[in-house]
Amino acid sequence: MPEPIFAAAGPVLLLARDDVDTDAIYPSRFLGTTKRTGLGPALFADWRTDHLEEFRRFEGTPCIHATVLVVSRNFGCGSSREHAVWALADCGVRAIVALSFGDIFYSNCLRNGIIPATVAPLEYRAIVDAMAATETTDIGIDVRQRLVKLADGARLPFQLAAGDAERLLSGTDEIAATLALHQHLLAYEQRTATEMPWLAPWQETT
Amino acid sequence: MTTLFSRLWDSHRVASRADGCDLLYVDRHVLHEVTSAQAFDQLQMAGRRVRVPGWHIAVPDHSVPTLQGPAASCGEAVDTLAANAAAAGIPYFPLHSSRHGIVHVTAPELGFVVPGCTVVCGDSHTATLGAFGALAFGIGTSEVEHVLATQSLWVRRPRTLGIEVTGTWTGRLCQGSGAAYHREYRHRGRSRLRDRILRQHSACADNGRSNDAVQHVNRSRGRFGMVAPDEVTVSWLRKHAAGLQNAASDSIAQTWLSLKTDSWRDFDTRVRIDGSTIEPTLTWGTTPADATTFSGRAGDPGAADSRAERDRIQAALDYMGLKAGQAVQGVPIDVAFIGSCTNSRIEDLRAAASIAAGRRVARNVQALVVPGSAAVKHQAEAEGLAEIFVGAGFEWRGPGCSMCVAMNGDHLQPGQRCASSSNRNFENRQGSGGRTHLLSPAAVAASAIAGYLTDPREFLHA
Asked: For B19, which of A35, A78, A163 is closest by C-beta distance?
């Protein structure tokens, strides 16, 4: 059952690269799992093996740990694997601040209670500069106010569609909400049966 | 007067929500073993059942072995899919079934995808099914759960991009993957575009021409893509789609043919590309947008317009073991892979076989051909294509995703360079440290024979 999400605050990890794809976030060789928890050790596994600068401080530990990721353009593009989001969640990530997100990845974040906060280039620059200048280690995210809160007191706006914010804040069970509309689903099914018979339930032929 | 996209979206909208999302009815849902186990678990934990089992099929493809011989165990994920499908009453097509294959190849063959339907799958390449005039898109596992429970999905309506290709077009046109736009393609002129789109409409390399219109396509990205059905589509469905031979009566065929955009102006954005100027394309770097022609060169950090882009190009060159501005023609390869949902249908194998006939794979190259489905494999064998490939020194495998996602034991060793007919050249995609170049099936065959990346057109004239 989803929980209400109001905010996130904690250690930040900066990954200032465009087009970070879900293969990089969660390599294919770990996709054989049938679980959705305990996936943390796979997060950025190939980049950690390559000793990427951004992950140096986690060397020797099984998992990366961060509460907020700050990333660049088109984060989470590519494959639809929700495992990427599950692995991030396992590593403590509760919010991602980005210039833009891959479409399916964005949707996967919302469904797993990770706040996808989209910022404009001006705000992105301000966050990255603040992190460099002050060696900021903690960042706060406020869903209701749509604010990124830096340690030096700066408050920077981010975008989150009203409906997406509402879903996070209320912790709605989306399936339950849809099933409450079952009369509409039934009406569609009945209409299809008469008006579009080729869309009838598919049958296997021998 | 509207776009085909709007017609299908509006006719499938069951309800709307205050946040602007629409509830779309899902006519067809395809399951595979990587993105379904957790969905069924969640469904069971919530005490829910599959709403309409008859509108789902399940096929394992990502992790199945492609080596011939007695079936080895496919692993826990495949066994779990089989068990979940059986418990829910969902038709399941296992490895070695005559109906097995990569989901996006097999589903149309089964007659499971029809013009005008909504079809989803937990795989980002689902958009390729838009080639049949279907509203087709990829979803995540939580969305798979929602579809199983409700036969519907909440989706935000995208903006639309109309792409018109003019002139005679013999090349390959693809799109990058991402967000924001739905795309519809149309061709004024001879209809070979439909052939290509039926085979290649997928998330893969953008055409690399430095043309404003194509750059716009490069940047627009798209979760949905579509081509209106035409006589080629209807004829293919009648001939190949099991179960549609009787249903595809003349009146249904006429209804399908009426599914088209009647107002091209209604797209939010429109782009026109001169098809006659599109040349065979390949990638040099680590994203599908890192593309050039065979007479072209790898990227040059010095030509980048920002420091971030300069660093990115250099990182891609370092990973791929190429120099800045290096000519792509003549770069030696270690592996050649013809396969994946993008390029493993009978037309793709014919194109590759026409290059391979009477020639031999270079000694330094391991070459494999993975047909997209059991039906494609059977047809290729009947047409003598398998014999051509084997005679030329290619390995002839069974169907599956294979080296595209490299989850089944077919993968590159660190540092190996692969000419691949798949759709993603991300770092480590085909194996840790593996270097992927994306090319057409004909170009992969030509490169396998030459032992290096090479323009396939040279072989056509030889």
From this structure: A163
